[in-house]
Amino acid sequence: MNNELLSIGGIYLVTLVLALPLGAYLARVFRGEKNLLDFMRPVENGIYRLSGIDARREMTWQQHMVALLTINLVWFLLAMLVLCTQGSLPLNPDGNPSMSPDLAFNTAISFLVNCNLQHYSGESGLSYLSQIVVITFLQFVSAATGIAAAVVVFNALQTRTTEKLGNFYDYFVKSLTRLLLPGSLLIALILAFNGTPMTLQGKQELISLQGDSVAVSRGPVAAMVAIKELGTNGGGFYGANSAHPLENPNFLTNAVENIALVIIPIAMVFALGFYLKRRKLAYMIFGVMTVGFVALLAPTVYYEMHGNPAIAKLGVDQALGAMEGKEIRLGAAASAYWSITNTIISCGSVNSMHDSFMPISGMSQMLGMMTNAFYGGCGVGLLNFFAYLIIAVFIAGLMVGRTPELLGKKIEAREMKIAVIVTLLHPLLILAGTALTAHLYASNPTEYSGWLANPGYHGFSEMLYEFTSASANNGSGFEGLGDNTPWWNISTGVVLLLARFLPIVGPVAIAGLLARKKYVPESAGTLPADTATFGVMVLAVIVIIAALAFFPALALGPLAEHFSLY
Amino acid sequence: MSTKSQSLFQPALVSEAVKQAFVKLDPRIMFRNPVMFTVEIGTVVMLLVTLGLLVKPDAAQGSFGYNFTVFVVLFLTLLFANFAEAIAEARGKAQAESLRKTREETPARVLDANGQESSVSSSQLQKDQIFLVEAGEIIPTDGEIIEGLATIDESAITGESAPVIREAGGDKSSVTGGTKVLSDRIKVVVTTAPGESFLDKMIALVEGASRQKTPNEIALTILLAGFTLVFVLVCVTLAPFAEYSNTPIAISAFIALFVCLIPTTIGGLLSAIGIAGMDRALRANVITKSGKAVETAGDIDVLLLDKTGTITIGNRKATHFWPAPGITEAQMVEAATLASLTDETPEGKSIVELAGETRRSDVAGLRTRLQGAELIKFTAETRSSGVTLPDGTRLRKGASDAIRQLAARANQPFPQETTQRVEAIASNGGTPLVVSQNDQVLGVVELQDIIKPGIQERFERLRKMGIKTVMVTGDNPLTARFIAEKAGVDDFIAEAKPEDKMTYIRREQQQGKLVAMMGDGTNDAPALAQADVGVAMNSGTQAAKEAGNMVDLDNDPTKLIEVVEIGKQLLMTRGTLTTFSIANDVAKYFAIVPALFMVAIPALGALNIMGLKSPQSAILSAVIFNAIIIPALVPLALRGVAYKPIGASALLRRNLLVYGLGGVIVPFIGIKVIDLLVGVFL
């Protein structure tokens, strides 16, 4: 048992040790300073020349957002086209059919927004071409989109007054060439050497020990799994995601994948510190995020390792912990650790079934997605945190007797309006979505009986989890839910779209507005944003706005279940 | 001032405020405050539910008595919030009225274009009319002297009993209505139309009609509206959740949950805090032209202060006589006194004073020797002054190089010791005046600036607030530097011309800093207008008063420091009460959420960590706590949170501990105590 705890401690430690230099490196990359991967420049220049982009043209925040949104629209159309016609396109050795338009719509949106609400199973639902040019491609570019947006905010927070915040394509392409592509290559190699398939050949026929004939799905798995984790997307090649032995063959690959999926979110925090030359600020942000992370991780690990009392009562040994829905080769602690890292960042990959976790663990997973800013997704986690930061700065600024300022820029009504809208959106989407569904179900339980495998408190958690996952752009699910119905497809699709782009545009807009303002030099009377005291303030704001708003809902779901169980 | 000791709740003000609390229930007025407006809607819904129960009892909604109690508590919440605003307004108005009382109807002696005099009531005086005032008469309205000079008793406004001199032309040409002319006769032009004096504008600001929300207040209102919306969402979505879970929730419980969660504490006190800020400024005898000016004062980064009157007491004073070698002190003092007796400059007078008081010179006797003497006035060329006595003795005092030239021309030595003394005095920030008799150097008189006692501590306090202080003086840079160091200011502008202030302000503003200054002269007007906070002295010219955004009735140059603290207090009070209000939600959740579900889902009783007696007593306790916390905090809102210059980080830690942690803990205790009391009746 101690070994299990040590191993997750080790995974976290290695992540940190790698994230710190990675953050410093990223700051150099985005500041345009000399760095290790400068040999990629010809590739980047080739891309710019091919697409007719002047990557040195500085953009305002609005131009950044126009660039971001238009390029996303193009990808969406491309994805739709491929998914709807994959049956007649090449690279389809298993002869999988084309997707129906509504499923294609759902799938395209889901991956476009760096999420993975997969209403299909990869083995039978996608051709290799779709896996490569739709899924894997979107996993790269959606992560790069988030990173590029975060870099716009970095740029805007410098101590100067300007409208020009660098070039979107420059940030975007560099995110790919200097970070995601090389990183994924490394991870894919490790996975491939540990047994993850990497082939364009179709299913492999084999005879099992029992003598049955089995067809094992293969494909370009290692490449996709690498970016699914590194880009915090989470969409697996196989339906069972990283619980599948070919996606995640052993404890080593589990550790590598788990490190890969949190490393960029953490490194981006450090990158902020190096980029702005305000390392203390980065440590404050990292500290707040880590406290939040540990507060969610600790109860989850505890309850998973102590087993399920209801099952214990049946006389089943719970010494290994609550192993229902978990892989023996990974164990309870590593599964708990994985589930929390995957929910605090918006990576929806799973190595165990969240539906089977203990109620408090399920609540911790949901809280990770509800706050959505403890590390958070690739780039977008910092953007969410930024909105909370604005609110905290405002209240704390007043408390020290000055008009609130963040890094020397005054926070006024306009910034406040945007920050409030962004932070309000998340509870709105989650609570309204769950409320509508709960109402539909409650008014006609027989018609919608297919929705919930477990009625009662757990069924409520399943609905709440689904909308939380969609709104956090996470993509994992409480698998008891029958989610392949028009209601779920449409409602979660809408939630996905809104929850992706507004929280990107909002913080970038705030940063853009701040960048235009006069820089006020800091004095003894200015609120320092890089102290532990202010960190406590930010954490309090996150807890009260993001977590407490869900208290009544959580009481009816996981809390009711927990107190009934214990 | 006597009004400063007045208690927070005077009976007359309270009864007026209570009346206003009901008037303000008008939804058109309530609408301005989104948080309390939603409470009003909730209250109306509760009223309808209660009335409905009277017609047709419904077990699901609880008893009539319980619902009625919830309604009454909500109604009280509204009244308490309105009362907070009303009492702040009443106090501000009372303060302003007490100032306005000084200008009751007085007859004014108006002169028409032909110089014909007629009597007009002061309230009917029009702008640009000219009136006459003589000794013993009350000045009918604000104006500017265009002819004459008078001593005026301004104690009615400033509380300062010493009369002041006001005269035409200079920077001290303004007179205030209600003050009394003690001597002489002046012609005054009316500068404000009736009902438009600064005081009238201030009263209007306090009364609410023309009160505009300040930028910070707007941003805070947006945040509070955001919080309110979150909780609208929480409560509205709770209905289908409860439907799914088969846990019926009474309407009263929904409304109670909602009202408790939204930030009613700060929502109810927000406008009171703003008004109280202006009121505190007025208590400090500063009239603000907008609420924004007070708020901006809290943000000031740079403070421009005139040396004379602010940092030092009045003018330079003689502090020491330093005789040259071979000259007795008596000899030198006598010569210096003779040379100064006819000198009307403050420096000259101070030499006579020093001689008379500390050296016991026979000043009266010396004065007789001046009969028939020739007076030599100071000129820019000679840079010396003095007398030539009837016996031909030439007594001179002047700048050291001027006397050195005199001595050199007469082939008299300029003693080495004297030269050293002159240098020593100059480097100590003093001004050396060399005294000579028939071109022979007798010694040096040392003139020093006297730094106001306690001013160093004030500057230290400002530094801890993060405010840079800048001394403005006409002195040469050497003297200026010395005084600046001695007084503890951070920077100085030496040999300052009026446009230097302007340049300095602009430069600081370009760096994003906010600058405050105080001024009185017409040539200060552009700088007062340019500064983010410009405080004009009431004695100053009309132009200066128009240009600034505050007027100081006391003409006290150190008032800026107080104004800054009032501004900071205002912002801090908003911040801390917001924190307190939001932190209260933690306890309220733990009171109401278990109460909502405990009956249908007994397992959730585990969340009832306060051990409240029953769901109904829990809900009542929470709303009662929510209501009474508003009046309980009114004194704090009106007085403001004490500002301590201990650095922003320490201040945040302190306030977070008191109002954040306190805000989490207090309602747990408060709700539990109320529950115990309520439990007795239920």
Automatic annotation (TrEMBL), chain A:
This is Potassium-transporting ATPase potassium-binding subunit. PANTHER family: POTASSIUM-TRANSPORTING ATPASE A CHAIN, POTASSIUM-TRANSPORTING ATPASE POTASSIUM-BINDING SUBUNIT. One of its GO terms (molecular function) is P-type potassium transmembrane transporter activity. NCBIfam families: kdpA. One of its GO terms (cellular component) is plasma membrane. Keywords: Cell membrane, Hydrolase, Ion transport, Membrane, Potassium, Potassium transport, Transmembrane, Transmembrane helix, Transport. Belongs to the KdpA family. Part of the high-affinity ATP-driven potassium transport (or Kdp) system, which catalyzes the hydrolysis of ATP coupled with the electrogenic transport of potassium into the cytoplasm. This subunit binds the extracellular potassium ions and delivers the ions to the membrane domain of KdpB through an intramembrane tunnel. It is a multi-pass membrane protein.
UniProtKB/TrEMBL annotation, chain B:
The chain crosses the membrane at residues 34-54, 66-84, 218-242, 248-273, 589-612, 618-638, 658-681. It is a multi-pass membrane protein. It holds the Pfam family E1-E2_ATPase. GO terms for molecular function: ATP binding; ATP hydrolysis activity; magnesium ion binding; P-type potassium transmembrane transporter activity. SUPFAM superfamilies: Calcium ATPase, transduction domain A, Calcium ATPase, transmembrane domain M, HAD-like, Metal cation-transporting ATPase, ATP-binding domain N. It comes from the Bacteria. The active site is at D306. Residues 105-207 form the P-type ATPase A domain. One of its GO terms (cellular component) is plasma membrane. Belongs to the cation transport ATPase (P-type) (TC 3.A.3) family. Type IA subfamily. NCBIfam families: ATPase_P-type, kdpB. Part of the high-affinity ATP-driven potassium transport (or Kdp) system, which catalyzes the hydrolysis of ATP coupled with the electrogenic transport of potassium into the cytoplasm. This subunit is responsible for energy coupling to the transport system and for the release of the potassium ions to the cytoplasm. This is Potassium-transporting ATPase ATP-binding subunit.
